[in-house]
Amino acid sequence: MNPFKTCPLCEATWTDRERFLADPDLELIGYQVDFEDVALGLFLFNHHCCGTTLAIRAKGFRDLYEGPFFSDRKTGTEACPGHCLRCTELSPCPAACECAWVREVLQRIRQWPRPSSQHSCAGAGG
């Protein structure tokens, strides 16, 4: 079975998404939108053990969203606060927009239960 993610610099490996999200050595730092296909946007995580930024497609987290999916994008309208245009903006968005599910998933990841915030860097767990 393939691991969920391997760090390209230090080769730390996370066997599944739950271990990845629970790792206190990882920090969600941004979302790089793909307006052609929102699911192909990138969630960005800093790996504090080696300083690398890891990118994972939003579609790898889509099942964490339980709300409605909207087909229209509100970017550039009065309803849009422009969060997706700022890579490091992690705030939720009130717009009924095609990108709304991504903003909610960002919140779920930010609130994911983790052990102490003390960095271990002894391996990602497997």
Short description:
The chain is α+β, with helices and mostly antiparallel strands and about 130 residues long.
Would you write up a description of this structure?
- The structure is a single chain.
- 13% of the residues lie in helices and 18% in strands.
- The chain is an alpha+beta fold and 126 residues long.
- The protein has one domain (5-110).
- Strands 3-4-5 form a three-stranded antiparallel β-sheet. Strands 1-2 form a two-stranded antiparallel sheet.
- It starts with a strand and ends in a 16-residue tail after the last helix.
Sequence stretches where pLDDT stays below 50 over 5 or more residues = none
Helical coverage, percent range: 10-25%
Mean pLDDT score: 92
Instruction: Enumerate how many helices there are, as a single number.
Output: 2
Radius of gyration computed on alpha carbons: 15 Å
- The backbone outline, from C-alpha atoms, is elongated
Strand segment tally: 5
Distance between the termini: 12 Å
Please give the order of strands in the largest beta sheet: 3-4-5
